[in-house]
């Protein structure tokens, strides 16, 4: 992370407007929070490895809806309780289906679909699709 990047984002009205309009993400070349090393780590998904500590602690599961920040909860509308009813996962159906190539409203639908259809075979499908997506760097920032 770049020191003071959050302040840069908050103080640059145009950049913040782009951030909100783009479903709380920025194009990597405009995101002040990401260093060159960070771009590499995100592209290769290496930045996700620390989540395995949370899996071993029991705070996350391997498969499940991706954790989100508080501001994103409003995207789920009256279905937010449904989204929060399951343990977040390191790999989700949304990721397996296109990652950052999917707009946020559609992402919500993928995550909620998972909540309704979670089972071992579906988890296995998501795991395999995520592994393929990681190696192809498909949809990665």
Overview of this protein structure:
By secondary structure, this protein is mostly helical. The longest helix has 17 residues. The protein is built from 8 helices and 2 strands; from the N terminus they run H-H-H-H-E-H-E-H-H-H. The protein is 50% helix and 4% strand. It has 2 domains: 34 residues, no CATH class; 88 residues, no CATH class. The chain has a two-stranded parallel sheet. Helix 5 links the parallel strand 1 and strand 2. This is Undecaprenyl-phosphate galactose phosphotransferase. InterPro entries: Bact_transf. It comes from Liquorilactobacillus mali KCTC 3596 = DSM 20444. Belongs to the bacterial sugar transferase family. It holds the Pfam family Bac_transf.
Quick structural summary:
The protein has 141 residues and is mainly alpha-helical. 50% of the residues lie in helices and 4% in strands. This is Undecaprenyl-phosphate galactose phosphotransferase.
């Amino acid at each position: 992370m770049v020191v003071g990047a959050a302040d840069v984002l908050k103080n640059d009205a145009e950049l913040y407007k782009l951030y909100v309009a783009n479903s709380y993400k920025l194009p990597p070349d405009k995101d002040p929070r990401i260093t060159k090393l960070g771009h590499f780590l995100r592209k290769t998904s290496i930045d996700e490895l620390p989540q395995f500590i949370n899996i071993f602690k029991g705070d996350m599961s391997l498969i499940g809806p991706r954790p989100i920040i508080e501001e994103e909860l409003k995207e789920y509308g009256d279905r937010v309780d449904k989204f929060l009813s399951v343990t977040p996962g390191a790999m989700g159906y949304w990721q397996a289906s296109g990652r950052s190539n999917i707009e946020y409203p559609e992402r919500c639908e993928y995550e909620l679909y998972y909540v309704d259809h979670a089972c071992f075979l579906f988890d296995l499908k998501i795991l395999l699709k995520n592994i393929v997506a990681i190696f192809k760097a498909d949809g990665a920032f």
